[in-house]
TrEMBL record:
Origin superkingdom: Eukaryota
Gene Ontology MF annotations: phosphatidylinositol-3,4-bisphosphate binding; phosphatidylinositol-3,5-bisphosphate binding; phosphatidylinositol-3-phosphate binding; phosphatidylinositol-4,5-bisphosphate binding; phosphatidylinositol-4-phosphate binding; phosphatidylinositol-5-phosphate binding
Originating species: Strix occidentalis caurina (northern spotted owl)
Gene3D superfamilies per record: 1.20.58.60
Name by which UniProt lists this protein: SEC14 domain and spectrin repeat-containing protein 1
């Protein structure tokens, strides 16, 4: 009987050690996820100089999200393990009570921020692709541009993207975060503005023959 009691106590001690380790590691997972969110907001700002570079940034972002997803899943698994261990030990966990809400809150903030980043990059890809295509068209063929709608659409996409860059990410609790500093944002918008100027210039060049036709 004594040996049985010793075995039971030894098992309980091992479970206690395991419980504390799971709690510590779960709290660490929340910290890692917070750091990934911070990095996303402060350093993932560039939109790319052209369609190709922007597509590369989009792919890099998807890999970054995979890392965050793994971190969140790891934290969830650890917290589930603490619940099982607590039931076995008939105790209440010291930290999982507040760690789970923290983990879920940071993950929600990360997913909202990530979705905004994806939206901006996808809009930038659409803008650059359309602008590059129209700028590469042969200017000696103005009849290809009888419809000025293409230019208007590109300018509208560019303008909506520039407007979007000035808007903060809003979280469920009402708090707001911007991507980088105002100067970071201005730098990210620079290539969009430059390409919009080129598109506008080409539109004017193609309109000029129309303007001079009545005089000839």
């Amino acid at each position: 009987v004594c040996e049985d009691m010793v075995d039971v106590r030894r098992l309980k001690m091992l479970q206690m050690v395991q419980l504390f380790k799971c709690e510590e590691d779960a709290a660490q997972a929340v910290e890692w996820l917070s750091e990934l969110l911070d990095a996303l907001l402060k350093t993932h700002i560039r939109l790319g100089d052209d369609a190709q570079e922007t597509k590369v940034l989009l792919e890099k972002h998807r890999k970054f999200v995979d890392v965050a997803q793994s971190t969140y899943d790891y934290g969830r698994q650890l917290l589930q393990a603490t619940v099982v261990l607590c039931q076995s030990l008939r105790c209440t966990s010291r930290s999982s009570g507040d760690t789970l809400p923290r983990l879920n809150r940071v993950w929600k903030q990360f997913t909202i921020t990530s979705e905004e980043r994806v939206h901006r990059l996808e809009t930038a890809v659409a803008f650059h692709s359309s602008a590059e295509k129209i700028l590469q068209e042969c200017p000696e063929q103005p009849e290809a541009f009888n419809e000025m709608e293409q230019f208007d659409e590109i300018e509208a996409v560019g303008k909506s993207l520039l407007d979007r860059l000035t808007v903060p990410v809003v979280y469920p609790d009402g708090s707001e975060q911007y991507f980088g500093s105002p100067s970071d944002m201005a730098s990210a918008a620079e290539h969009i503005r430059e390409k919009m100027k080129l598109v506008s210039l080409k539109k004017q060049q193609l309109r000029q023959p129309e303007a001079t036709t009545p005089e000839s």
